[in-house]
UniProtKB/TrEMBL annotation, chain A:
Main location: other
Superkingdom per UniProt: Bacteria
GO cellular component, one term: vesicle membrane
Annotated organism of origin: Streptomyces violaceoruber
Gene Ontology molecular function terms on file: structural molecule activity
Protein name, per record: Gas vesicle protein A
Gene name as annotated: gvpA
Taxonomic lineage from the root: Bacteria, Bacillati, Actinomycetota, Actinomycetes, Kitasatosporales
TrEMBL record, chain B:
Keywords for the protein's UniProt record, in alphabetical order: Coiled coil, Gas vesicle
PANTHER family according to UniProt: PROTEIN GVPL 2
Pfam families attached to this UniProt entry: GvpL_GvpF (PF06386)
Coiled-coil positions: 88-139
Protein's UniProt name: GvpL/GvpF family gas vesicle protein
Keyword Zinc: no
One GO CC term, this protein: gas vesicle
Family: Belongs to the gas vesicle GvpF/GvpL family.
Organism from which the protein derives: Streptomyces californicus
Length: 147, 236
């Protein structure tokens, strides 16, 4: 399994760039509006969203999928995940399993804490390590969104 | 001076705003606009405001502080009214609707769940299940024309979309009982799910456990990211 939990977007001070990205669209696109009141310009962000939609159905995307399929090794591919798991298991030993369970059971508590305190230490340590497993696209986009 | 609005709460709501500041550089000062039934947390709207990290964080921090004290209607980032008088007029005009929504949200928080699947794992599944795609793949791998490759990619892209939607539906259905309401949004590229849940505060532990079970069942090829508790942005 792979579940990354985040108490909220802003815990852990300035280190939570990935976290902010994960809730950015909620803060920018959801939430209550009042008729006849205006919103500040979010031009750059809207452009980014349109780009994403266009790219999904483009020849470039098709060619990228085709290439990914061509590269795919159907025979050895099936073994790859377990080999990877073994490797990680050797390196981190029991730490890996214990950690993901422990992180979860402690998480609800951490959620509550983070409402009062902005510097939840265990959350802060947990996240950088776990986030390395994720694809890097989100952090890149969050940077371009900020500008 | 125009007025930036962060949130609307009931009139008696706690306002733990010490140490917090509003949007802008230098940071604006937070204040409230109140009627006898409702309170809006506001600040001056700085000229030239845009969605900078600093400002989005300031907005979010104010909401999280308010949320800790009970039901809060989070405003969308960047909402600006002509002035405090107009904010007060809006509070009076919409008082019934706002109070109704505050009552609905009382004791509830939002969780956002995003999920993605390892692309190779998905492609392998598609390839195993479709003769047409598998044959086209063999052909384009050997040599194949540009058109063949586009055709392959288009078939695969369609499968990726259909399967993603199906998986999103499955996840939503299995978690439906653990939440009061849910709300779909556009998933990010490479992901198939972007789903927000409204969860009673007293049941967040059970909800998180249900998400964990879902993630466990799906296996290593999937990555789930659960964020919360959040102000109920998706349910106002």
């Amino acid at each position: 399994m792979s579940l990354v939990q985040q108490s909220n977007a802003t815990s852990g001070g300035g280190s939570g760039s990935g976290n902010l990205y994960d809730v950015l669209e909620l803060i920018l696109d959801r939430g209550l509006v009042i008729d006849a009141f205006v919103r500040v310009s979010l031009v750059g962000i809207e452009i980014l969203k349109i780009d994403v939609r266009v790219v999904v159905a483009s020849v470039d995307t098709y060619l990228r999928f085709a290439e990914a399929c061509n590269r795919l090794d159907l025979e050895s591919g099936r073994k790859a995940p377990s080999q990877l798991t073994d490797l990680v298991g050797d390196m981190t030993e029991s730490g890996a399993k214990g950690k993901s369970k422990g992180a979860l059971s402690g998480a609800v508590e951490a959620f509550t804490d983070s409402l009062q305190s902005k510097n939840d230490e265990s959350e802060e340590k947990e996240q950088p390590r776990k986030r390395t497993a994720r694809k890097t696209t989100s952090s890149r986009q969050s940077q371009s969104r900020e500008e | 001076m125009s007025t930036y609005i962060y949130a609307i709460t009931g009139a008696g709501h706690p306002l733990p705003l010490e140490g917090l500041h509003g949007v802008g550089d230098p940071p604006s000062e937070l204040r409230t606009v109140s009627t006898d039934r409702l309170t809006a947390v506001v600040s001056d709207a700085p000229p030239g405001l845009r969605a900078k990290r600093r400002d989005v964080m300031a907005h979010q921090n104010v909401l999280e502080a308010l949320m800790a004290g009970g039901a809060t209607l989070p405003m969308r980032f960047g909402l600006v009214g002509p002035g405090d008088d107009e904010v007060m007029a809006a509070l009076e005009r919409e008082a019934d609707a706002y109070e109704e929504r505050l009552a609905e949200l009382d004791g509830r928080v939002e969780y956002n769940l995003k999920a993605g699947r390892d692309e190779d794992d998905l492609l392998r599944e598609i390839m195993t299940q479709s003769d047409e795609i598998r044959q086209l793949n063999e052909r384009t791998r050997a040599q194949g024309s540009h058109d063949d490759r586009v055709a392959l990619g288009e078939l695969v892209a369609r499968e990726v979309t259909v399967r993603g939607q199906q998986e999103a539906e499955d996840v939503a259905q299995r978690l439906a009982d653990a939440a009061s309401r849910s709300s779909h949004a556009e998933p990010a590229p490479q992901q198939f799910l972007n789903l927000s849940f409204l969860v009673p505060r007293a049941e967040t532990e059970a909800f998180v456990a249900a998400v964990q079970r879902e993630a466990d069942q799906r296996g290593d090829a999937y990555s789930f990211t659960l964020t919360g508790p959040l102000p109920p942005y998706s349910f106002v």
